[in-house]
Structures are given as structure tokens and as C-alpha cells.
Write the C-alpha cells for this entry.
Amino acid sequence: MRLNGVEIENTFAEAFGMRGTRLTVTAINETWAEQAALAVTGFATSVIGCGVEAGIEGPSGKTPDGRAGMDCLFFAASREGLESTMLNRIGQAVMTAPTSACFDGGLPEIPADSDKISKYPIGSKMRFFGDGYQASKIIGTKRYWRIPVMDGEFMVQEEFTMVKAIGGGNFLIVADGVEAALKSAEAAVRKMKELRGVILPFPGGVVRSGSKVGSQYKFLTASTNVFYCPTIRGRVENSALNAANNAVMEIVIDGLTEELIGKAMAAGIRAAVQVPGVQKITAGNYGGKLGKYHFHLHKILAGGGNGWES
Amino acid sequence: MGELIHLTLKAEPALPVEAESITPDNLRGKNEEKIKNLPVWCGNAQEKIGDYFEVEKEQSAGETRVVLTGECAQFKRIGQGMSFGELVIEGAAGFHTGALMRGGSLQIKGDAADWLGAHMEGGRITVAGNAGHFVGAAYRGKTQGMSGGMILIEGNAGQMTGSRMRRGLIAVKGNCGDALGFKLLAGTIFAGGRTGRHPGANMLRGTIILGEQPELLSSFYYNCTYQPVFWNMLYAELAGCGFFLLPGGQDASFKRYSGDALNGGKGEILVWQST
């Protein structure tokens, strides 16, 4: 299959089940809402080393307190892992941001009665920071905690929502050089960031150090993806590159549903192939043996909505 | 398919009538004859709804809706314990209206007498006129009053509004009498106008929000002036119910007082500051 003259390899991205959640971080103005969002989503590129993958979706359409807000998505490997990391991150990165408040961003993409949805406690644990001076307030049907801080009160919702989500959707851009690969990746990222419900957790949405499972060193569980490293192409048996391929960029996608990831991948690939110098689009997988979710490039680009299967 | 049940008052009774049988729960699914035969009490005499009201019933969309037309100030306990549906009183309502209410919507287009929503657990009561004493309060000998739901009063309310309230929201646009939120356990009370003596006396926790600076007991102490984030949310919640609080609204600042120091000092009184 070719798109704008670029080969789309007949392969699939292999993704995994994760737990996802959305925060809405608000503050007195957009600047401080953004500061809080940047802090709470910082150092969260890969569960391998960060324990969580996170990204900012964008400004909140409507916030619970009517102030400026940002929506952020987080994905972790387990329920316990997500709960633990959210407690730490909200405590250290949102509560510390001036004038901030933190709310459950909800998951409107998922039917409310879905068994994939569950609640987990945040405010009810964070409240102890108030050292006995905290107070709760029920508004509508939801409980919030008010923790006294030096600029007033930090308000945080008692419970947040998590969903069984998907992490590790991906595609790789193979190009004739770094400039083309990067421009292509940037174009893809711009297009994919228009979508809600997905994040691209790596720096600027792009990862240049793709990894493979395992290593020749026993103490490492993951190591560089030698099959896509152009500088060692001649030394690596079964390299995925040819002599004309001089750079590869990968885009990793986490999303709340398979459909959202499939749509994001399709939008990203279509944007990526518009850049001159792009030679091939492919995807990372483990032979289909590890990940539950498979996103076939040809199928998702056919646009039928059946490009993803689990 | 829902039901629309009209109860039209024939004549205002001279004596009080205990009418706790008038709830959507109780009237649902009954034909006009059965509704007319439901009991009410006048003194020690058991009478019937049909003795006081014309009854008409029709099918309608939505939930069960009961509309009472006439001045019902002599009828006590209307809507007591109701759990769903809509109950509309097109005039005044008597004592204990909506007491022990658990859900649904109760609208009073006139004034409400004492003990409105006493021990209420859920749902929403709206009053277009004034309310009497002990709104959402605890009955004598009980330690906890209202424990959920919302009471919205466009006019004034009497003494001891929200006394011993445990949870929920009471909002009064106008003035309130003495001892607003007396022994408040938790929850939120808003009074937009003047308040009588000793607001928040002996309150344990909870929030009293006032539109005008009251004379506070000496067991309340000033903390700071600030913009609580939850105010924006409360404002929006009530605006969504068509109940708009203080002019100038959402971005208001408040003086915050803690008290009652005689009972732990964990409660708060917020006093709106005009800009």
C-alpha cells in the first residue's frame, strides 16, 4: 500500500491494556493552569522508567469551578500503579501550583455504565495534608476536599474515574534523513493533537529512542531498537532499514479506547506522508504475542473503523 | 408514560389537616376514586382527600406530577417522605411540608410554614415566597436535622433555619431570623439578606454564607478575606437550578470567620464583600 507515494508496510502496532484517567487542573488564569498541567504531566514518557505515561490534551472546554483549566490524561500499567502515581503527582505538582484546584476530568468517551470504569480515591487521601484543618464540601452529588494552603485553599475532588484503556499504539516514520523524519513527525503530531482522548507521551510527541524487549545484558528489560538504528545497520542481522534510510522517528499513542487510537494513528500517518523525504511508514510489534491490541496500518488507513482488533 | 394529577382545593378548611398522604409516591398508579379515598386527619377524625379536593388525573410524559391548586396553608405534611416525582403547590403550604423528603422535586409557589424540609434526606424544595421557622431543622429531641438535598427560598426564612443540619444545602435569598444554623453539624447555608441574632451559634462544622455582615458572637474569629474556589461551583450549581445568588456573583470575595470556638471552631461563616 502506498499513500502519497510512501510505502505503508503491511504490519501492525501492538498495544497493551493500561489504566487511564483524566484530570482537569484549574487555576486563576491560563498561565497558572498550564504551569500546573506541565508539572503534573512532567517526566511521564514511558511506564518503563517513569511508572506512568501522561500528556496534556488541551484547554478544558468547561471547568467545574468556571476558571481556566487544562485536561490531562494519564496511563499506567495497573490500577494500583495509577492510583499511587496520581496521588503523588497531584500532591507534588498540582497542589503546589499557586491558585490551583484539581478535578476528575470525567470520561465521556466511555459509556457511564461500562464495566471498564471504576473510581479511585484522591481527595479522601490527600486531605490529611490539611493536618486536621481540612474540610469537605458536597456540591451536587460530588464531594470535594478543601485543604488550607498559603494562598487560600487547595480544592481537590474526593474520587476520580479510571478506565481500562490502551497504551502503546505506534507507528514509525522512516526517512532519508533526520530533517525529513522530524518534520514528518511534527506534522503528524500537530494533526493528532487535535484529537481528544489520546496522548503522545514522548517529548514533543516524538520518540527517537525506540526500544525492543530484552537486552544482551541480564539486568535490562528493554534496550534500543537495533533494527531501526541506521548507524549500526550494517552490523545488525535482519535490520529493518535499507541503505537509503538514514533516520527513523516513532510516535507512540496512548488512548482511552481502541477506536480513538486507530483514528489518531490514521490521522498522524496521513499527515506524516505529506513531507518529502519520508520513505516508509511501519509499526512496532512483538509478533502479536505480547499485546492484546493490534492496529493494522492498512486497515486503519482504509478508514472502515475495523483496523484495530483485540 | 407518566401521570399528571390535579388536586384542586374546594374550600380552605377552618382547622389544620394532616395530609401526609399527598405525595407522588402515594398517588402514583391510583385512579381518581382511590385518590379521593386516601385518608387525611383533621384532629382525631379520619377524613378523605376527596372531602377537601377535586381530583383529576391525566396521562402525561415524564414522571408522576402532582399539582395542588389553592391555598394549602392549613394542610400539614404535604410531600412528607416523598422519594420521587414532582409535587407543585400553587399556593401556600402548611407546617412540615417536605419533611423527611428523600427525593424528587417539591415546588411551593406561595409561602411555606414552619418545619419546611425538616429532616430532609434528598431531593429539592423550592419556595417562591417566604418560609417559616426551623427550615431543614431537627425535631425536638433529635440530634440531626436535614441530611441531604436542597432547599431554595426566594423570600425570607424564620428563626433557627438549618438548626442541627447534618448535610445538604439551604439557600435563602432574603433575610433570616435568629440563630441561623444553630448547632450546625455540617452542610451549607446561604442567606443573602440580613440575619438575626447569633448566626452559627454552637455550630460544629459546616458553612454559613451571608450576604450582609452580621453581628457575630465573640466565639467567632476573623481569618482572612479571600475567594473560595467552591463558591464558584456552588454559584454555578444553583444558577443551574435557576436560583441566582448575590449580584456580582461568581467572582466574589468573602471574609472568613471560624467558629463556634465553644464547639471546636471548625465551622465557618463567610461574609460577602461587595466590590
